[in-house]
Amino acid sequence: KDLDSVEVLSYAAALVEALGGDNQAGDAKDAFHQQVLRGEMTEKEVKQRKPWRIAWKGKVTAAIKIYSKNYRRITILTVKGGPECDWERDALEEIQQSFAGMVTDLNIKHCESLGEVSSCLNTLSAAKQEERGCIVQ
Asked: Whole-model pTM?
């Protein structure tokens, strides 16, 4: 949720998906958290170990690798949220560096609001469809 308690992820994902992009983000309600983590660990262990971070890195890295086969330019959008979103934003910078030289044009756009996400998507949608891929995290 953002500072105004708006469910930012669901709105941002819907905007991106409407333009043909993908949502690689997840939350405590998604299948991975409900079926995989809850089946393997107690709630206390999940909070202590934060295993979703490794899964998140894997999902994002796989998405970049898949998109790079079809698109010359990839843009990853982030939306400001809580402490985990801040961690993800920092981790994306590391992931971006790990793809240096392998992906032609990998960009990260850190948005502070849904309005900024919408504006960024309008700009991206004006680009040639075959040249860009968009992922929200």
From this structure: 0.75
